[in-house]
């Protein structure tokens, strides 16, 4: 199944969501798949049994808002993608944004959900919060968090070498093949463990840094695992093993490569259920300068 077979784009009609529409269109177009664009109208119905006319007025307001939203979404998609009206489906929902989008994703059998990096506020802050965060956490399929970036055809996949991180590498290989892009697979060699778990002198002592020869052995071993992983998945990619904190290394490497996309699995060593995104993945989605594709590890 191709990533773009059924693409659901979540839009709040903001400029941030425009990039989501563009990227969703591109993925669906490459796969010859279906594009569904969803907008959620906030619904507030009063609980006033003694005043049914108030409830009726609210319902009429919602219906009016949904009608206007449908027209606005259709115009936006046509302007941004050049698709005709019958070249995509518009879904207008009412209620909670994240719950509605997740419900539509299940309903249409989405193979990819695309969302903007921030919403109507336009606040220049890091991503994960509110609607986008919950979509990434709970969606049954991969989620693409869209950020504007020039097309460089460079893709960066990150792995902690665990089996749970392999879906991210596999998905990155699929995207690279579809786009004929250059793929780099990265492993961050964190040689300084957290003080809570690492080898430290009691009462605030400095962590013990492994000797250079041991670090080189660790680097070689990690590269060997990367070779086996890429060969097993049938992926051609440049391999990199870089020392440092995983999220920091990934974000910095993406900038150095001028990558247009970073691909990360939802969790690695922890093996937690999909409700837990994982701190490394969360930091990457928040801090990357480009779009981030979050693969679901089952």
What do these coordinates show?
It contains eight helices and ten strands. With 298 residues, the protein is of the alpha/beta class. It folds into two domains: 1-148, HUPs (Rossmann fold), CATH 3.40.50.620; 149-298, HUPs (Rossmann fold, 3-Layer(aba) Sandwich), CATH 3.40.50.620. Strands 3-2-1-4-5-10-9-6-7-8 form a ten-stranded mixed sheet, sandwiched between helices. Strand 2 (34-41), helix 2 (52-81) and strand 3 (89-94) form a beta-alpha-beta unit. Helix 1 packs across helix 2. The two termini are 16 Å apart. The relative contact order is 0.14. Residues 119-129, 194-199 and 268-276 have low confidence and may be disordered. InterPro entries: Rossmann-like_a/b/a_fold, Universal_stress_UspA, UspA. This is Universal stress protein. Residues 7-147, 153-296 form the UspA domain.
Roughly what fraction of the amino acids lie in strands? 15-25%
Q: What number of structural domains do the residues give?
A: 2
Number of strands: 10
Distance between the termini: 16 Å
CATH superfamily of the largest domain: HUPs
CATH class of the largest domain: Alpha Beta
Please outline what is shown here:
With 298 residues, the chain is α/β, with parallel strands linked by helices.
Topology at a glance:
Blueprint: E1 6-10, H1 15-31, E2 34-41, H2 52-81, E3 89-94, H3 97-108, E4 112-116, H4 130-138, E5 143-146, E6 154-158, H5 166-179, E7 182-189, H6 212-233, E8 238-243, H7 246-257, E9 261-265, H8 279-287, E10 291-295
Parallel strand pairs: 1-2, 1-4, 2-3, 4-5, 6-7, 6-9, 7-8, 9-10
Antiparallel strand pairs: 5-10
Helix pairs in contact: 1-2, 3-4, 7-8
């Amino acid at each position: 199944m191709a990533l773009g077979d059924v693409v659901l784009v979540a839009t709040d009609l903001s400029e941030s969501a425009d990039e989501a529409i563009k990227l969703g269109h591109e993925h669906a177009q490459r796969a010859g798949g279906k594009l569904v664009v969803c907008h959620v109208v906030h619904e507030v119905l009063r609980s006033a049994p003694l005043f049914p006319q108030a409830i009726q007025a609210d319902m009429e307001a919602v219906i009016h808002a949904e009608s206007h939203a449908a027209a606005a979404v259709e115009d936006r998609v046509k302007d941004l993608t050049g698709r005709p009206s019958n070249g995509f489906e518009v879904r207008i929902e009412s209620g909670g944004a994240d719950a509605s989008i997740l419900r539509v994703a299940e309903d249409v059998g989405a193979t990819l959900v695309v969302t903007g990096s921030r919403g109507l506020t336009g606040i220049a802050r890091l991503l994960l919060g509110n609607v986008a965060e919950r979509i990434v956490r709970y969606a049954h399929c991969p989620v693409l968090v869209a950020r504007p970036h020039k097309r460089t055809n460079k893709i960066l996949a990150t792995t902690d070498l665990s089996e749970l991180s392999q879906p991210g590498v596999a998905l990155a290989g699929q995207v690279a093949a579809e786009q004929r892009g250059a793929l780099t697979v990265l492993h961050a060699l964190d040689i300084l463990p957290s003080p809570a778990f690492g080898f430290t002198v009691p009462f605030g002592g400095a962590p013990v840094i492994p000797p250079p020869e041991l670090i080189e052995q660790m680097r070689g071993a990690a590269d060997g695992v990367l070779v086996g992983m890429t060969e097993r998945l049938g992926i051609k990619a440049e391999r990199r093993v870089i020392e440092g904190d995983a999220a920091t290394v990934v974000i910095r490497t993406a900038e150095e490569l001028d990558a247009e996309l970073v691909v990360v699995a939802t969790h690695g060593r922890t093996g937690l259920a999909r409700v837990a995104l994982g701190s490394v993945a969360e930091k990457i989605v928040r801090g990357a300068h480009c779009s981030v594709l979050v693969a679901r590890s089952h």
